[in-house]
Amino acid sequence: MGLTRRSAVLGVLAAVTLAACSDNQDQKGTQSGLIEAAKRKKAPAVTGDLLEGGSFDLSAYQGKVVVVNFWASWCAPCRAEATDLEEVWQSSKASGVQFVGINIRDEKDKAIAFHSGRATYPSIFDPAGKIALGFSDVPPSAIPSTLVIDQQGRIASITRRDIRAADLREVVEAVVAEKDSPNG
């Protein structure tokens, strides 16, 4: 890894460390947690090895709404939101919504122990936080952070704190409904 790339990785990790488990504000300029369709940025490639084996590739879900949650086993707000995330996953997967967790800055055995019994959706193991670097236009600069990707592969919402089921469900349902909208 070159010095510039290493510096960038260290910079992002430092920012995430400083913001970890924080109560940062959501994306500015949104209504009901949604970014206006015309202002949405394309989501980067998201690929990686899953905690329980196998791999994940966001591009396989083009045309679907995808919820991406950045988490760590040591993060108290991550523990607080885990039940809410699972609840929305269970209630929305029949609509074609996909969830994926991205575990960062963690040890694999601790991540697996946290994830088992809390989440039935897959989670990528990304201890170096490299996936977060791809989200430079709308960075998940706190742990936890939850992004909702629309059917066109754009970031429709970002929450840089723990999220409750009612709030996430409202955003997910709004983004799912966009497929029938000319502005979606």
Describe this structure in words.
The chain is α/β, with parallel strands linked by helices. The longest helix has 17 residues, at 3-19. Helix 2 (76-92) links the parallel strand 5 (66-71) and strand 6 (98-104). The radius of gyration is 15 Å and the shape is globular. The chain has a 5-stranded mixed sheet. Strands 1-2 form a two-stranded antiparallel ribbon. The chain has 5 helices and 9 strands; from the N terminus they run H-E-E-E-E-E-H-E-H-E-H-E-E-H. The termini are far apart. Keywords: Cytochrome c-type biogenesis, Disulfide bond, Redox-active center, Signal-anchor, Transmembrane. Pfam families: AhpC-TSA. Its main location: other. It is found in: Cell envelope. This is TlpA family protein disulfide reductase.
